[in-house]
Design goal:
Layout: H1 2-6, H2 14-22, E1 25-31, E2 37-43, E3 50-53, E4 56-61, H3 69-76, E5 79-85, E6 92-102, E7 120-132, H4 135-140, H5 156-164, H6 170-176
Antiparallel strand pairs: 1-2, 1-5, 3-4, 4-7, 5-6, 6-7
Helix pairs in contact: 5-6
């Protein structure tokens, strides 16, 4: 359809900047040289994705699972796909481009959260940007709390114990993922 083709842009519009300033969450898709893929969630307070100029954004890296799959992929293949979400909105902002990993830059000071600078950032040069329709969110009813069923599966500690079978006891895992877990985010 013509509208689907013509909605693509290569430069950030003011509304894209506003979307990024309001978004607290994005997904970064990468692929390695061998074709293996990874999708990593990234989140911080709204506006965590910095707009560096009309064609470049930066996403901070925070402590996570420490697998670094996406980062290894970026070193092999710089092509990335991003989806930025705003809770409650059924449309998304999609950005495709070329990424590079940055260990330090002056803008890291603008990425400090709770006194912590990011350990690195993913800089993305925008090659394609557009808004994606709401149909998937509407079909899934993702933002409708009355459809949520978090109890459908065991708790995070129990899942880890059953699926990953670590040496830690269930009690140790429950302590780790308990109320103090929030203290380890930065």
């Amino acid at each position: 359809m013509p509208r689907a083709v013509t909605k693509e842009r290569t430069v950030l519009h003011q509304r894209d900047r506003e979307w990024l300033a309001a978004s607290p969450f994005c997904l970064i898709a990468t692929a390695g040289a061998d074709g293996s893929c990874d999708v990593s969630p990234k989140g911080d307070p709204p506006g965590f994705t910095l707009v560096l100029d009309d064609t470049t954004i930066a996403i901070p890296e925070r402590p996570g699972n420490r697998r670094a799959d996406g980062y290894r992929n970026i070193l092999d293949n710089p092509h990335v796909g991003l989806i930025h979400l705003i809770p409650g909105r059924t449309d998304t902002l999609r950005i495709n481009g070329r990424a590079r990993l940055v260990r330090d830059a002056p803008y890291f000071e603008d990425m400090v959260v709770k006194g912590h600078r990011p350990v690195l950032a993913v800089e993305v040069v925008v090659e394609q940007i557009f808004y994606h329709c709401a149909k998937a969110f509407l079909r899934s009813q993702l933002w409708r709390p009355e459809t949520w069923r978090p109890e459908a599966l065991p708790s995070r500690p129990r899942l880890i114990k059953e699926v990953e079978a670590p040496a830690a006891t269930l009690e140790e895992l429950e302590r780790h993922y308990g109320p103090d877990y929030l203290k380890t985010m930065y």
